[in-house]
Amino acid sequence: MNQTVAQPAQPVKLDERVTRKSPLRRLLGRPEIGALIGALALFVFFGLTADTFLTANAFSTILYASSTFGIMAVSVSLLMIGGEFDLSAGVMVTTSALVASMFSYQFSLNIWVGVAVSLAVTLALGFVNGLLYVKTGLPSFIVTLGTFFMLAGANLGVTKAISDNVATPSISDMSGFSAAKQVFASDLTLFGIQVKITVLWWLAMVAVATWLLLRTRAGNWVFAVGGSAPSARAVGVPVAKTKIALFMGVAFTAWFSGMHLLFAFDSVQSGEGVGNEFFYIICAVIGGCLLTGGYGSAIGAAIGAFIFGMTNKGIVYAEWNPDWFKFFLGAMLLIATVVNLVVRRRAEVSE
Amino acid sequence: MKRFATGGLAAVALVGVLALSSCSSSGGKEAAEEESKTAAGGGPRLKIAMVTHSAQGDTFWDIVQKGAKAAAAKDNVDFLYSADPEGGKQAQLVQAAIDQKVDGIIVTLAKPEALKDVLKKATDAKIPVVTINSGAAQSAEYGALVHFGQDETVAGEAAGEEFNKLGAKKAVCVIHEQGNVGLEDRCAGAKKTFKGQMENLFVQGSNMPQVKSSITAKLQAAKDTDAILTLGAPFAATAVDSAKEVGSSAKVATFDMNKQLITALKDGSIQFAVDQQPYLQGYGAVDELWLYKTNGNVIGGGRPVLTGPAIVTKDTADAIAPFADRGTR
């Protein structure tokens, strides 16, 4: 790491972990910097190849696409830093939307009651995920794989049992809908650009998560339990509580994404959401989170989501042959991640 | 197989948990069960299995099942349903139906090759087979009595013609499942008859916000687009939203049908819907097997029976509104 072999005669040698590094080096040592450079490279690339890519409207579309991945990637990255996976995250979004929609509809209640009930149910699901993990000691991969299948089944089963259809009826004419739509799925005009409100929520969540990670004791716990749970426990970190809280954090963003899904499209397809959990994990990993835990950042995951959203939509803007869409997507992601890796290695070497 | 069976059990358990926590399911669930119990048909009780390539929770296949169940209730048939999007697993499910010694098998041939051998086993075991939805070309060759479905290319051609009538010049065909032959055929058919230019766009069908932003992006990139063809009803509403957002005047049309679509057809935000009448596919297949078993009849004389395309427009939307409303159209 930071070996200062050139100055052996220094009288009081500070531990390398507490020495002040130059601002540039500290910047390069951050987990998200590689992703940022990858994102810039992709941005320039698409800017050159796609005519409409550099317009304000295109940027707002890309930000919207990024935000719908990004909101989930915030909590998923925290969970991954804490050393765990949540494979039920994708379908949990659908579950939360279904609960809010069906609860309000079946009882003809104000939409906000459904929204609140959905929050409670979704947080409970996150709690169950966390509790199952803590109590059984099984890998979270297995635990949440189980809950993933269960939720996917329940989404369909309950929806069909209640409404006899696989999609919920539209709730757009119910009281409270327009207010809720304002909160979860409205358009705002900022500096002359139409911006989806999810973009602002996303940025706010990234800010809160970053503050939490870097400035609070709970943030230290997250890094500690992800780095080594036994060591963390040995120094008094409440490992079980931290992990359960992280699963509930994923549930919270799943609830939020579910509310966006519901109020943006007013009817929910019960089969939706399968497979999205991997995209959240991908965003976090592109953004510098390690699959093994203990390292990563919320900002990185946000940049990862931005890369993913940009690639996803950039290919459409570039009007490449759609048959090759997934190939291009994979290639772009690989390039972004390799740039990320190269930058990080350089940063480590230059220290 | 086993894994799925246990997953199903677990799901049932969770259904219970969720039902309790949301306090709302009892009425609807009981009603649904009551419905499936009512059997009032003539002849001996038959057991008919339907095995499709449906993904979970697809509106379309839900309507197919409703049609099949309606016919089953009328014909005194014990109706079994299973599905798997993967060809190999679908074949295993057909094998399971053969093992159960069912009186008839209804199957979709989305991946014909994967099902060829197992259908041979079915015909060897003297179990009559009816194919639905996809596989018109292979149906007779694999020994099926008859095929109920829509020729996707023909349906696509009809959509292309409709766009010509609307005077569209540049169209986008939105494919929500990459590599699905049926969807590709629809777009190819539409492209064939459409006098203007038509391009395909791939979207991730399981993620509605992504569908929306992709269509938005496409409309921003190709500003002269004046027609959008979606291949599933839920995506049409999203395409309308995208067009509104971009300020595009592109006309939206779609394949398949649902309740919300009727409203959209009436208010003119969606121009037309190409309905392949899934209810008819399910109903017809069960009825055919019953007719064959009780009277040796073959509907259509062994030729594929077309259930679509039925074009629904503003003028005809009212007539089918009540049926779409209860989720059978």
UniProtKB/TrEMBL annotation, chain A:
Pfam families: BPD_transp_2. Keywords: Cell inner membrane, Cell membrane, Membrane, Sugar transport, Transmembrane, Transmembrane helix, Transport. The chain crosses the membrane at residues 33-50, 62-80, 87-105, 111-134, 141-162, 193-214, 221-240, 246-266, 278-308, 324-343. It comes from the Bacteria. It is found in: Cell membrane. It is a multi-pass membrane protein. CDD domains: TM_PBP1_transp_AraH_like. Part of the binding-protein-dependent transport system for D-xylose. Probably responsible for the translocation of the substrate across the membrane. This is Xylose transport system permease protein XylH. It comes from Actinomadura alba.
UniProtKB/TrEMBL annotation, chain B:
It comes from the Bacteria. Residues 1-31 form the signal peptide. It holds the Pfam family Peripla_BP_4. SUPFAM superfamilies: Periplasmic binding protein-like I (SSF53822). Residues 48-292 form the Periplasmic binding protein domain. InterPro entries: Bact_Solute-Bind_Prot2, Peripla_BP_I, SBP_2_dom. Keywords: Signal. It is found in: Cell envelope. Belongs to the bacterial solute-binding protein 2 family. This is Sugar ABC transporter substrate-binding protein. It comes from Actinomadura alba. The lineage of its organism: Bacteria, Bacillati, Actinomycetota, Actinomycetes, Streptosporangiales.
